[in-house]
Amino acid sequence: MRRALLFFLASFTLVSVSHVAPRAAAQEGEAQLLFERGNQHLAAGMRARGARRDRELNEALDAYLGVLRLGARTRNVLFNLGLTLEALGREAEAFNYLSQYLREFELSAEERAAGQERVDAMRPRLAVASITSTPPGAEVRIGRRDLPVRGTTPLELALPPGPQEVLLSRAGYADARASANVVVGHTAVVSVELVGQPVAVQFIAPGGGRLLLDGVEIAAGRTVPVPPGAHVVRLELPNEPPVERRFEVPVGAEPMHISLGAGSAAGAARIVVSANVEAQ
Fold this sequence. Notes:
- The longest helix has 23 residues, at 25-47.
- The chain has helices spanning 2-13, 25-47, 50-69, 75-87, 91-104, 109-122, and strands at 127-134, 139-142, 151-152, 155-159, 162-169, 176-182, 187-193, 199-204, 210-213, 216-218, 223-226, 229-236, 243-249, 256-259.
- Strands 3-2-5-6 form a four-stranded antiparallel sheet, with no helix packed on it. It has a four-stranded antiparallel sheet with strand order 10-9-12-13, with no helix packed on it. Strands 4-1-7 form a three-stranded mixed sheet.
- By secondary structure, it is α+β, with helices and mostly antiparallel strands.
- The chain is built from six helices and 14 strands.
- Strand 12 and strand 13 (243-249) form a beta hairpin.
């Protein structure tokens, strides 16, 4: 145990916030001072016992959270924050910060192994949800839409035991919701397939015939919400061969315009140009 403790003490007393993105010198200096103060209190807390231990660890916690509030979110800050919370017995929060450390940063094999070892050691005592989405990259909230984002999929979170509502959101997709019952000592798997939001498509065609979108008749000139994916629009005019166009609606696309006319070839494209004055 002592060898492991010395290893982690060395790892955080030697690191710095030099990896923080460039920012105002005063703010960067304040983050540096807070980080070093947190390291001093964490080292003192690890050596102390009783009330002094808790006091030192809470001082370290306040310092590291202050670094995060300044925007200096580095792998070293997250790792040391996870260590502090673990030492305070706040294992669910420690698990979540160390999981972010493993997920968000380029780590050496030794760093990754050390972080993973601590996460795995806490896992049997926690209720964990493993949340994935198709496609990945969805923001995850727990409980309500107005609460802070907890991360993006794929994501593991330690949560209070019991029923939980998981809300996912991603640009271009409809918000999704899933329920999970998280139990201590187990990992609840939450997997959600996101559905793309419809895109407004205007279909321009001459009157006097039938216009069908995927076999359903629509009115020419109208704007129709069309789900992402492949579609077929067909124009049927009296005494004219039918005209079909196949088109793709990308997820998150801007409003689209599809034009069909008598005698146009299937798959033909048309450019519609407008100007604020008459012009050739």
